[in-house]
Structure formats: structure tokens, C-alpha cells
Amino acid sequence: MVVALILLLVAIGSVLFHIYSPWWWTPIGTNWVYIDHTINITFWITGFVFVAVIAFMAYCVFRFHHKEGRRADYNPENKKLEWWLSVGTGVGVAAMLAPGLVVWHQFVTVPADATEVEVMGQQWQWSFRLPGKDGRLGTSDVRNIGPDNPMGLNRDDAHAQDDVVIENGELHLQLGKPVKVLLRSVDVLHDFYVPEFRAKMDMVPGAVTYFWITPIRTGTFDVLCAELCGAAHYQMRAKVIVDEEHEYHAWLEQQKTFAELSGGNAVVRATYQSGDK
Amino acid sequence: MVDIPYEGIANIPPAEAPDVELYHPRSWWTRYVFSQDAKVIAIQYALTASAIGLVALVLSWLMRLQLGFPGTFSFIDPNQYLQLITMHGMIMVIYLLTALFLGGFGNYLIPLMVGARDMVFPYVNMLSYWVYLLAVLVLASTFFVPGGPTGAGWTLYPPQAILSGTPGQEWGIILMMSSLILFIIGFTMGGLNYVVTVLQARARGMTLMRLPLTVWGIFTATVMALLAFPALFVASVMLLLDRLLGTSFFMPSLVEMGTLSKYGGGSPLLFQHLFWFFGHPEVYIVALPAFGIVSDLISTHARKNIFGYRMMVWAIVAIGALSFLVWAHHMYVSGMFPQFGYFFATTTLIIAIPTAIKVYNWVLTLWRGDIHLRVPMLFALGFIITFVNGGLTGLFLGNVVVDVPLSDTMFVVAHFHMVMGVAPIMVVLGAIYHWYPKVTGRMLNDVLGKFHFWVTFLGAYLIFFPMHYLGLLGVPRRYFELGEAAFIPPSAHSLNAFISVVALTVGFSQMVFLFNLAWSLFKGEASGGNPWRATTLEWQTPETPPGHGNWGKELPVVYRWAYDYSVPGAEEDFIPQNQPPRATQAVQGAVS
Question: Lowest-pLDDT range, A138-152, A254-268, B91-105?
């Protein structure tokens, strides 16, 4: 029976494609391996249901397709069967939802020792900001933006003077240190997206959003914009480099503070401390 | 013949539905153009929706040319690419699927299936179509205005939708919002009609629990649309005011092309909440009519009652109600209040239960059936596979933390195309093969139909199933070209090219279908009144195609539910809904 066979082949082919396809998620670069586990649980449960439903359907087509003299059963309902199927589905749903919610709890609970960095999106480039030696990011406002103040920092805020401002460059992160990534936009929606990080979040003008990660391997990662932001959305790129501690500090030494960039002279060149000091 | 042995749907005392005075057309114009007959309005809706749908199909070809072979087609630039995806999405979701299921199938089938002479407000029903046509024309006009149509994405998120970095900011976005407002006005006129007709104009004996599931699906979807579209209406008006008058409903202080704009104090997230409060029910506004129709296709062509009818009705109602509590699952990474994640993930995954029940009952209807693998049944089987596939990937995206890596990637594109593109269109096509004989009196060609099914079903599956894996890899959506990115291997580009070739093939195979529709209108085999030997009322009309007023002199009286197929002891393997029980017949026989 050709139709039944093709239906079955669609199910088998999908499973084989899943197993042998060369396209799979990127090697993970952060602590969010739990997210990958939850996806795997979901693949197992949904894969089983998919194959079971299609195989049953193909069997019915094979076994009960029209022949001369065949007559269908008259079978309006079967409450017991329907309840068992509903309960079974409920159990499967719970098995996906429960781990999902547990991991979501971790995702929205930022560890107390996380350091902050800020990513700012604008059409169509990325800027980054790190706190100076005071360990705090200064305030900012879109109304302060000008040629010598691209991120709109508040000149009257002492915390802002020593902030490290990186315009249109690369962001470095330190291996193994939890970091809260603060996200801000000055024009339209953007989304700071690094596939290897798994985490992502929209950047909304007028608000500060965030996610947190702990980088678990060194390397250079592509930053893309994942929220449509206009004509050059696809070209809005940058790089994030995850360094060992000493490399990270070597890089940080070379960066310029807001005071230096904006011609301020009151602030001494900052010396940066490692996190555990 | 026997009485229905099924106590669940036993004889409930029939309600009286008085016959109505119909408007009778007096000229060619009022008969075929400004017609108040729901059947003519249905065909007007269906032809208009299909015409603008074909435009959207061509847009998708251009889009796939660019994605599959970036840099080859110099006539597509990044701005045009965004305009292509925006118009393709908006046309398909609103102007094709919503209009076709509710305006097309709803208008044709509701009065016939419930045993009414027409919709209860025929004049308003006519206005509904003409306002819809105006909405389509306004939408189409954006292709010809300076700057072209909007390229804001079909979600139209502000601030970018009305700022100068987005194509179509001059006229496109203004006309898009105007067209949506018109569409909603037109839909509301039609929708009120469908709801009141189902509630008030059913034939004597047609209780709610005797309605075919097609009517339940369209009815519930219409109620949902009447509740959901106002949110889009409000959002459209506010966005239009922000664009035209410089108000700031959705616009915070921001920089536009390097200078501080005049906006301030608005919230971009407010738009997203309004949009998805409409947008998620919209998914089910398209899906529920498909659920209902496919139930009837499966039952008719498997010669077996739909399994678990009452559970099917409650599942439709439950899905409709729950779908108003899940909208923010489109916004998990929007920057909204993070604690919403728990609530919306839970409600979203709960919807899987009534939805799964529907799937089980469809396949259980096949069990021990007498399955005729005619073209409508093939499309129904294709629907089940694509819907199960697309529904299951919804469990990934609905589970908040799993959505984080997958959102805004090609996984999402593959998911929603499978579940609310391919699956409902399988039903649309199956339904056209099923009801074409009633509308025209002729059968569609079977060989062309089978060819059309296999190319469309297998092709669509080959397009969208592998696409999930591009998303898993991390390929973002709405990209003019992928450019340099270390994580995207060359094989991903080859897959994109493959998908484009299949998409063009499937697209062109629709021409076979269009040819079949036109050819069979004149040369198709005569169908008779009830070629599928179906039970529901539309197949029992005295004339085929049904005449003005549908039923001749006497309105039908309904004695049984819609699914008396293969009743034990009955001579035929179907008993029409208006066939009286044997006792009544004997009395009638004695009188005459």
C-alpha cells in the first residue's frame, strides 16, 4: 500500500534526518548547558509522539483502506481511552515543563557575584561599556548623546567618568566569571545574540534589559542582531572574545575611559582590579 | 434503517426556527456583484483572498531566490527583501487565511450546514465583502507608492516600523495600518453575521451538539476573532497617530539617524502586548476552522463517525478560551517582566492537551474505518502529519527557557510555517476538492489532484522540516544574507539553496491546481448532489449548486447528529441528518 508506506517513510526519514543531519547547535560557550538538556528532553518526548502518531496513522491507512465489501465500525466514543490519552499527554507535558521552569528560574536569578557589562545597540552597530575601578556603571540618558559622548553618559555622574567605553569594537569577557549583561538601545529594538551563549534578550529603547552568563570556554564569538532593526539589520555585527584572566586584564589596560574619550581631565587613569581582590 | 443508537446525541426536542423573508435580486448586478446571497459573497471572498494570496506566493519566490542564492539577483536589495517578507507574512496570515476560512468557507458553509436560507443580516454581509476588498486594494496600492510597502516585518514592531531606518516609512506603513483598520471593520460585520446565524437560524432539530465540527470550528474562531481583532485595531490606530501626529503611545525618547527625535514617554512593549493579544488568538482563528473542516473530511472519507465528538467540541472551545491566556509566549526575550515566563509557559503547554486530544481523535477515527484515499482524504492525512510536526515544535518554543536560544531563528520560521502555513493550507486545498462539486456541480480532476497533493505535501515538508535545523544551528531570521559568521558552515548555504529550489517547485505546482479549477468548471465530470455520500445538510439541497434560499420550499428538519456513517443495520453506509427515523417514515408513507 503505497500511501501508507510514504507516510511511514516521512516519519522514519525525519528521525534519520535528525540523527544524521550535519546541522546541530553550536558548541556551547556558557553555563547554559541546562538549556541544551531541556531541548534534548523535549526532542525525545516529541520525537516519540511524532513517530507513534504517524506510524499508527500509516497502519490504519494500510489496514483499513477501502476494499469492496468493507464496512467501518460504528464507534462514537470511548471515554476511558480518551481520559487515558489525556492523562498521558499531561504527564508528557509536565515532563517538559517542569525542567523548563526550573532552568528558567536559574536564568532569571542573577548570582550576587556577577559583574556588570553594558551593551548598547544602535542602527546598526554595537557599543560596550565596562565599569571602571569603582565597579559601578554611571548613569546614562539618550538625551546626552553627542559626537564626543556616543553612549549618552551623564557627565555629572562621578561613576561614569571611569567607565570604559568601547565604540564599535570587540567586547572581551573573562573566562569562568559570571557576568550580568545589561542591554540598552538608543533607537529601535535590537537583540544581543551570540549563538554559543544560548542566552539572548531584546534591547528596548527607554529600558534596560539583561541576561547573565558564565563563559566556560575561551574563543572568539560572532555577535548578531536577532531583532529586526531596519535596513542593515543583517550587517549589525561585532565580536565577543572570552579570555583567560591575564589576557583579559591586558586587554582592559589598553581601553579608554569615558573621561579620556570626552576630554575630561579630572579623573586619574584607572587601574583595574581582578575580581577577587 | 434504524434510529440512532447513540444516546449521547439522542433526540432532543427540536427548536422552531421560523422561515425568513429573503432579499431577492432584481438584476444581474444585485445577483452577481452587489449580491446579498452568502454563497456569492463566499465566492467573492475566496477569489479575492486567492488573488492576493498568489501575490504573496510570488513574493515568497523572490524571497527564496535571495536566501538560496545571495548576491545572484541584483534586483533584490536589502530594503526590498524586508518589504517582501513583511508583505508575504501579512497577506498570508490576515488577507488570505483569515479571509478565506471565515469569509470564504464560513459564508458558504454556515447557512447550508445549519439549514438556514442565508446569513441573518445579508446586507451587512455584503458590506463586509466590499470593505474587505477595499482593505486589499489599499494594501496592494503600497507596492506603487513612493518608498514602497513597509518593511517592518509582519509584526510591525515600533519604534522601527515608523522610523526612517526602515523601508516604507513614508507611505507604506500608513497604508498598512489603514488597510488593517479597514479589514477589521469589514471582518466585524461578517463575523457578527456568522455568530448570530449559528445561534439563531439553525434548522428545526439542529441542536448545538448536532452541528458538524466545521461549523463549531468556524463559529468558535469567529467569536475569538471578534474579541481579538479589537486589540489590533487599537494598536493600529495608536501607531498611526504616532506616525502621523507625532504622539508617543509606543515611542520612548530615542535617537533617529543621529539626532534626538521629538518622541518621548511611550512604551514599545505596549505595542507588542496589544499585537500578540490579537496575534496569538489569530493562530487559532486560522487553526480552528481547519480543525473543524478536517474532522468532517476524515469522517466522510473514512465512512466513520468522528471519534469522540463531544470531546472534540469541548477541545475546540477550550483551545479558543486558553488561547487568550498565552500571548506573551511570543515575548519571552522581549525584555518584559521576567516572572511572566512561568505563567505563560504553563498556560502555553496546557493548550497542548486539548490539541493532542484532537489529533488522537482524528487518527482514532481512521481506526477500523473504510478509508477512501480520495484527494480530500489525502490532504487530511497531509494535514495531520504537518500539524503534528508543527504542534510538537511549538512545545519547544512555548517552554520559556527553550525558546531563549531558538527565538528569532529559522526554527521559529519553520515552526509557524508548518503549523499555521502548511497545515491549514492542506485543509484549504482538501476542502476545495471536497466542496467544489457542491459549488459548481462538477468534480475536480482526480489525476491532477493527486499529483497536486503529492508535490505540495512532500515538497512543503522538505522545505520546512530541514529549516528547523538551520534554526537549531543558530541562523537568524529576517536576514537579507547571512554574510560571514564562523558558526555557519558552507553546508548551511547549500541547504538554503536546496530549500529554495523545492519552494519554487511547490510554488509552480500550484499552477496545476489553478488549471484544474478552471478546466473542471467546464469539462469536469458531473457530480450530482452528494458525490461523497455525506450526511451533512449542505449535500442534501434540492439543487446543486444550491439555489437562492438554499432549500426550495421547505426548510430541512434535522433528526440526528452529523456523523451517522456505517450505522449497524442501516442499508447505506450513511444516513443524512435530515432523514427521519423509520417510525416517522412509516407514518408519512401511510398518509401519502
Answer: A254-268
Contacts of A229 in chain B (CB under 8 A): 160, 165
Phi, psi of A169, rounded to the nearest 5 degrees: -120, -145
Residue type, B521: L
Report CA dihedral (B380, B385, B387, B388) to the nearest 10 degrees: 130
pLDDT in tens, A68-79: 888 999 988 899
What is the distance in angstroms between the Cα of B19 and the nearest Cα belonging to chain A?
Answer: 33
Dump the DSSP string for B43-109.
HHHHHHHHHHHHHHHHHHHHHHHHHHSTTT-TT--HHHHHHHHHHHHHIIIIIIIIIIIIIIIIHHH
| Averaged pLDDT, B42-67 | 96
In angstroms, the separation between the Cα of residue B38 and the nearest Cα of chain A is 33
Question: Measuring CA to CA, how many Å separate B121 from each of A218, B30, B197?
Answer: 69, 16, 8
> How far apart, in Å, are the Cα atoms of B208 and each of B112, B202, B212?
15, 9, 9
The Cα–Cα gap between B359 and A14 comes to 19
Burial of residue B93 (CB within 10 Å: 0-12, 13-18, 19+) is buried
Q: Which residue in this structure is represented by grid cell 533584490? A: B76
Q: Which candidate from B260, B368, B385 shows the least CB-CB separation from A7?
A: B385
**Number of helices (H), then strands (E), in chain B:** 17, 2
Residue B11 has a pLDDT of 53
- Alpha-carbon torsion angle B337, B341, B342, B347, nearest 10: 120
The set of residues, in sequence order, having a beta carbon less than 8 Å from that of B326 and lying 6+ positions away, is B280, B344, B347, B348, B351, B398
What is the identity of the amino acid at A71? Answer: R
Interatomic CA distance for residues B271 and A179, integer angstroms: 31
pLDDT of residue B591: 41
At B587 the pLDDT is 44
Q: In A, which residues are within 8 Å of B466 by CB distance?
A: 17, 21, 23
User: Would you say residue B4 has pLDDT above 60?
Assistant: no
**Closest by CA position to B41, among listed B131, B112, B129:** B129
> Is the ipTM of this structure higher than 0.90?
yes
Q: Is beta strand A125-130 parallel, antiparallel or unpaired with respect to A115-122?
A: antiparallel
Please give the pLDDT value at position A9: 96
Residue among B17, B30, B2, B8 at smallest CA distance from B548: B30
pLDDT number for residue B27: 86
- The 10s digit of each residue's pLDDT in B393-443 is 999 999 999 999 999 999 999 999 999 999 999 999 999 999 999 999 999
Which of the four pLDDT bands, split at 50, 70 and 90, describes residue B276? Answer: very high
Q: What angle do CA B453, B454, B460 make, to 5 degrees?
A: 90
| Closest-CA residue to B396 (of A115, A88, A46) | A46
Contacts with B573 from chain A: Cβ below 8 Å: 71-72
- Asked if residue A238 has pLDDT above 60, the reply is yes
Q: H or E element: which one contains B458?
A: helix B446-473
Distance from CA of B590 to the nearest CA of A (A): 31
User: d(Cα B240, Cα B182) in Å, to the nearest integer?
Assistant: 13
Cell of B583: 417510525
pLDDT for the residue B16: 56
